[in-house]
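Supplementary Methods, section 5.1.

A reviewer requested that the exact input to the structure prediction be made available. We therefore reproduce it here, unchanged from the version used in the analyses.
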Amino acid sequence: MKLTALILICALLTFPGFCSPNAETITNFIEISSELKVVQTINFTMKNHDEKAESALLLMPYEPKRFEVLDSESRPLNYSSGTSGGIFFIKIKETMLPQASKSYFVKVYDDSLIASFGPSNIFTYNFISYYELKDLTIILSIPDSYAITSSQGSPINPLPSKLYSSSGAIILEWSQAMSYLDSKTLFVFFEKSKGSNFAFLIGAIILIVGFGLGALSVFIFFKKIRAKTLTKVLSKDEQKIIELLLKQKEMSQKEIGTILDMSKPKLSKLIKGLSEKEVIEVTPKGRNNIIIPKKEML
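The structure derived from this sequence is encoded token-by-token as follows.
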């Protein structure tokens, strides 16, 4: 499968009339309206590493039903498009000199990225890279009339590298380098807000994904509202543990299990998850663990 896709990509890039500029970065800003309409604005930053090119090729994993191709000043561009081996391509006839860079924007209208189940909605997005990307950034904007769903499992997967608020909207951002045929799938559960998104209006959490084992470093702008904001991306059971720790400041794992009536396996899994999110500290003590909330949570 991977080999076949690579052969198809190479064929597209070397086919007469196509050229060699490669996308170095892709930024996809995805905006959800209060009517659950979805608009993606995909920014391809292309660089021509070889000789003078006469066209640029934008590659996507599927053919959108409705889209526009624009330049950096939002002017419509002339293009041709087609599908080969499941890879959708947009060809823009425009001269690009050696070592030159240029940005192209593809505006996609696709409401199928959202599915509704009763009061809850799920946004699902899958990206396949047909380039060697220095950076892929996906920015999702959820309107202020909605809130992240509090569910038994994680309502956001994977966790975003940034989570903040802008003009009342909830903004989630994922960013990483991508190799050829790397894929990224994410989902977010959200529902109509039953109350105020006050925490998001006055503060922001920035979660920066680290390297190596993917450790998460948490930086706090407003410590007093951090706990309230963070609970929007924690499961109900994780919220119970945090709420208890914020009252008691320090507890043994056994005490938490007794008070919350949780089995040892279930509690161990929850404690491990909270530790990986770096909202608690776990210190072994004898045959037990001492759990305390991170100082930023207090």
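The first helix runs from residue 2 to 14. These observations are discussed further in the main text.
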